[in-house]
Amino acid sequence: MNPLILGIETSTLSCSVALFSSDGLLHAAQKCDAQHVHASHLLPMISEALEVLGKSPKDLSAVAVCAGPGSYTGLRIGVSTAKGLCHAMGIPLIAINSLEIQAYEALESIDEGSTIVAVMDARRDEVYTQTFERRGKAVAALDETRALVIDAQLSTSELFPALTGDAFVIGDAAEKTQMLLGDRAQTWNFKNAHPQAAFLLRPALAAFEAQAFEDVAYFEPRYLKEFQAGKPKDPLGLRNKKATA
Question: Which of 59, 120, 184, 205 has a CB 3.0–4.6 Å from the CB of 55, allowing a cystine?
């Protein structure tokens, strides 16, 4: 069977869709703005992708979507759209870690065995991150997805313990990470980029072949809510002063 899979990526300010099969990438489109455009653009982009190929939703074999971490708004819209299509068409749902999607883009720029650090903007000095290694045409995770404060007092080995050498850093927080690391990562390479649905191709096809599907009714994105809901920083103690005034 040669599956036709729709890819949806909405974990950042970028909104992208792709159609692919075992033959490769068939169509890809991306829109990015300073504000979220997912609600108004995602469904028209999906319709256009299918129309370009002369296909309809009933021709789809599965939908692959970003699983998080990322923007609450973006992930909610992307996942709800994917689940709606899967439910309506009776097809499976595939969910891929958003940082893993980002890491697959780095394969075009690195050699076998190289280390990739995927970084996604969180807030202030914080990023969502995960470390990967290139193994053939795939990436292998070397640690868990986590929220990281890039502390100026810590070394790169303390911040990224899975690393054994230089890294290729990719994501919408790559420039921010480079700035925060400063002289600690002079020999690293950095590429600022939003994750794209086109790079769902390899992990989604592997998941489809392994039948690694999500429960359409109960799947929820991985927002890293505990981190986002944490207490705000108060380095000057102003909040405590107001509370005791």
Answer: 59
* Residue 36 covered by a domain: yes
Residue numbers of the domain that contains 205: 5-98+195-227
Domain tally, the chain:
2
151 and 109, same structural domain? yes
Q: What is the DSSP secondary structure assignment for residue 232, as one 8-state letter?
A: P
Cα dist from 109 to 112, 135, 199, whole Å: 10, 14, 14
pLDDT confidence bin for 164, thresholds 50/70/90: confident
CB 3 within 8 Å of CB 55: no
- Which tens digit of pLDDT belongs to each residue from 21-51? 999 999 999 998 877 778 889 999 999 999 9
In a domain, 233, yes or no: no
Query: Measured in whole angstroms, how far is the alpha carbon of residue 43 from the centre of its chain?
Result: 19
**Residue linked to tokens 């499976």:** 92
pTM of this structure:
0.89
The burial of 90, by beta-carbon neighbours within 10 Å (0-12 exposed, 13-18 middle, 19 or more buried), is given as: exposed
The reply to whether 238 falls in a domain is no
Residues 28 and 17: beta-carbon distance below 8 Å: yes
H-only helix segments in 67-138: 72-89, 98-106
The model's confidence at residue 235, banded by pLDDT at 50, 70 and 90, is very low
